[in-house]
Amino acid sequence: MTPNELRVIANHIRRRDLQAVFEAGAGHIGGEMSVTDILTALYFRILSIDPANPDAPDRDRLILSKGHTACALYVTLAEKGFIPKDEISTFLKPHSRLNGHPNRTKVPGVEANTGPLGHGLPIGVGMAMAAKLDKADWRTFVVTGDGEMQEGSNWEAIMAASQFRLDNLTLIIDHNRLQQGARLSDTNDVAPFAPKLEAFGWAVEEIDGHDMAAISAALDRSAITPGKPKCIVAHTFKGQGISFMTDDVAWHHKVPSADQYKQAMSELEEAL
Amino acid sequence: MTISAPPAQLFDCRDAFVGTLEALAQTNNDIIAVCNDSVGSSKLGGFRDKWPGRLINVGIAEQNMVGVGAGLANGGKIPFVCAASCFLTGRALEQIKADVAYTNTNVKLCGISSGMAYGELGPTHHSIEDFAWIRALPNVPVIAPADRAETIAAVTWSAHHEGPVFLRLSRVGVPDLLPEGHVFELGKANMLRDGTDLTIIANGVLSHRAMAAAQMLAERGISARVLNMATVRPIDRDAVLAAANETGAILTCEEHTVYGGLGSAVAEAVVETRPVPMKLLGVPGIFAPTGSANFLLDEFGMSPAGIAESARELMKKKA
């Protein structure tokens, strides 16, 4: 799939996500807009997965460790055929499978029940080790938020991945520089990530996290450094694609008004 | 004058644990051991020597250790995640909740040196809250074997059970109680001794003390039933109800705080089926003073004589 085709899909996912959050009256719209291009590239270009056989042993694994942006994952899974597209309208409704954080036991295609931050990377290390033990070539991808990297458990996993030479593991940090309440730099400035990860023995690449060609190239198997786990620091914007949300900490989990919704939707439509 | 029996031979159940694990691993390549720099205290040296690639030592990093276990399970492995129970269940509780229980992964959590096994090292190293913490989580059976035979049986059962398990193991020496070749059944108590006047329910390192107490009671003309209740969740409600109906009083003994452990689980079943007088023996909601595991159990009223004394007091409350 070409970068242009991926852009069209990502635009569609943003619009469906926006509608779902607006209708549900809740969600994490800012982080969903920042991670959408990464998820789109993964699901429509990189991951070897089969919606008809979501538990195939040799499938690639993706963990959305920033589980609060579940809605973007649900829309992506629906677009890919893991769940019915019309099920998105049940997001957050009573007894819906689609609650505020993803659940593997209910939603096909979800690999881990995330929500509390700092859980995805340790699980990803275990998955990558399972593949190594089987001498299998399936890959493991973990997407974290940048604020999430303040959780110490991530650094435990970063050390282990390097120690075990897990070159089949890729960490993508959605580096939008904002956390729930403020900028990273005003809270606990864990950035810059690249020198830290390199010091821990990882191969690191910094990219524009909204450039489909760059995302696809960085995720490609050919971009693996043998013997080293890979970290992609994806520079993104919270609220990407919607002018009044972009890079504004207020839009972590704010819900647009009817007027804002109309404006946001028309901006996304025009961008097509 | 009574002639006391020679002291029974005591066994460290970690040996039964690793012996069983190695036997299972011999025929099942998917069995993996994961630990936190605890190769020695988890007695995994033999496993490591036989299958170096299948022992994953993540270092002193328990949150990562449990996450790695969940990831291995997702990849089709059967990880036995081994660490001192205080660190496994305390440090990594949220990983146990989200990655193991909620995601319902096939992870075997092995809490080594549980209870007050690390006696003199103090309350930081005591694991007397783990029944309560893990019992509160859906999907995770909580099992505390009493001796070698039950350890072998419970480890074997866990390896074949599809889903999470919490095995609470000790290093404190215990005598044999159950017959060789014992088969573990989840949620099923074993009646070690029948009786009519009251029932003593125990597990882990307390079961043999409960048996000794029952013998002392018998010498005073009191007939005590003894149930070995290895499974704390799901609790054997049928055995509890029968004990309430047939003996009219229940005394529980555990190497755990009395808040939320075996005694609480039994009490929950009792109040919902047939309320009878109960007494809960355990750590009485304090941080323990300095002392060995066996000293502390005696200190908290769980010597055989202490248990027998509590039984006699409880009998007075019977209607």
Quaternary organization: heterodimer
* Class by alpha and beta content of chain A: alpha/beta
Radius of gyration of chain B: 19 Å
Alpha-carbon distance between the two ends of chain A:
17 Å
Assign the CATH topology of chain A.
Rossmann fold
Largest interface: A-B, 35 and 30 residues
CATH top level of the largest domain in chain B is Alpha Beta
Report on the biggest sheet of chain A: 5 strands, parallel
CATH top level of chain A?
A: Alpha Beta
Overall structural domain count of chain A: 1
* Straight-line N-to-C gap of chain B: 36 Å
**Structural class based on helices, strands and sheet pairing of chain B:** alpha/beta
Question: What coarse outline of chain A follows from CA principal-axis ratios?
Answer: globular
The CATH superfamily title of chain A: Thiamin diphosphate (ThDP)-binding fold, Pyr/PP domains
Please, what is the average pLDDT of chain A? 97
Question: Can you walk through the features of this model?
Answer:
The complex is a heterodimer of chains A (272) and B (319). By secondary structure, chain A is α/β, with parallel strands linked by helices. Chain A has a single domain, classed as Rossmann fold. Chain A contains 8 helices and 5 strands. In chain A, β4 (203-208), α7 (212-219) and β5 form a beta-alpha-beta unit. In chain A, α1 (3-24) runs antiparallel to α2 (29-46), α1 packs antiparallel against α8 (258-271) and α4 (120-133) runs parallel beside α5 (152-163). Chain B is an alpha/beta fold and 319 residues long. Chain B folds into 2 domains: 13-168, 3-Layer(aba) Sandwich (Rossmann fold), CATH 3.40.50; 190-315, Rossmann fold (3-Layer(aba) Sandwich). Chain B has helices at 13-27, 45-50, 62-74, 85-91, 93-102, 130-135, 148-160, 207-219, 237-247, 262-273, 293-299, 304-315; strands at residues 31-35, 55-57, 78-84, 108-112, 142-143, 165-168, 190-193, 198-202, 224-228, 231-233, 250-257, 278-283. In chain B, the strands form 2 sheets. A 7-stranded mixed sheet of chain B has the order 2-1-3-4-6-5-10, sandwiched between helices. A 5-stranded mixed sheet of chain B has the order 7-9-8-11-12, with helices on both faces. In chain B, α3 (62-74) runs parallel beside α5 and α8 crosses α12. The longest helix of chain B is centred in the N-terminal third of the chain and has 15 residues, at 13-27. The two termini of chain B are 36 Å apart. The mean pLDDT of chain B is 96. At the A-B interface, α4 and α5 of A face α3 and α5 of B.
